[in-house]
Specification:
heterodimer; A: 117 residues; mainly beta; seven-stranded mixed β-sheet; four-stranded antiparallel β-sheet; B: 111 residues; six-stranded mixed β-sheet; five-stranded antiparallel β-sheet; 0% helix; 55% strand; globular
Chain lengths: 117, 111
């Protein structure tokens, strides 16, 4: 399988549940990202990882907990979510992080459609 | 406050004609701009990009124009095809790790 894959594609969970979203990239990239897309809002960056180290966390509530065990895998652990957390969660990867005048294009997975009841 | 705006939520164009999608930004430090295309039930796919040192970049039927003084970029698709029907997002970066995305424009190409 090639590109960026995400599982599950759809998830319905109650506010007291604990679940995890999984992302895997087969592109040999070193940087991975989690984005949230709510209805009629732009994509919001949540977390950035480079070589398994978190380099950016955009003030995301602690009920979202990322994990990057290696450069090919990224998880988003969810617990005690709120209904307003219902959204499309997109994973992306890039060759590396931007720097030195270079910005690397991000390649996205298909997303996980999350509904919190 | 949104730094990247796509003010037209939707656009309909006849097949064979030109589609022009517009994007405005507020941060003059942005130096790299991209367009992504998204089909339903799929993630955004990279379409074309432009660096702030250029004012035009062309790739087949797709051309992106950048007007730095107006803080405006546009995507031209010529000729438009029904398979181009999708949501188009513009994004901007200031050579950092964060891309700022617009809310998207839904393009419908009518056969």
């Amino acid at each position: 399988e090639t590109g960026v894959t995400q599982t599950p594609r759809h998830l319905v969970m109650g506010m007291t549940n604990k679940k995890s979203l999984k992302c895997e990239q087969h592109l040999g990239h070193n940087a991975m990202y989690w984005y949230k897309q709510s209805a009629k809002k732009p994509l919001e960056l949540m977390f950035v990882y480079s070589l398994e180290e978190r380099v950016e966390n955009n003030s995301v509530p602690s009920r979202f907990s990322p994990e990057c065990p290696n450069s090919s895998h990224l998880f988003l652990h969810l617990h005690t979510l709120q209904p307003e957390d219902s959204a499309l969660y997109l994973c992306a990867s890039s060759r590396g992080l931007a720097g030195g005048g270079r910005t690397d294009t991000q390649y996205f997975g298909p997303g996980t459609r999350l509904t919190v009841l | 406050d949104q730094q990247v705006k796509q003010n037209s939520p939707s656009l309909s164009v006849q097949e064979g004609r030109i589609s022009i999608l517009n994007c405005d930004y507020t941060n003059s430090m942005f130096d790299y701009f991209l367009w992504y295309k998204k089909y339903p039930a799929e993630g955004p796919t990279f379409l074309i990009s432009i660096s702030s040192i250029k004012d035009k970049n062309e790739d087949g039927r797709f051309t992106v124009f950048l007007n730095k003084s107006a803080k405006h970029l546009s995507l031209h698709i010529v000729p438009s095809q029904p398979g181009d029907s999708a949501v188009y997002f513009c994004a901007a970066s200031n050579t950092g790790n964060q891309f700022y995305f617009g809310t998207g424009t839904s393009l419908t190409v009518i056969p």
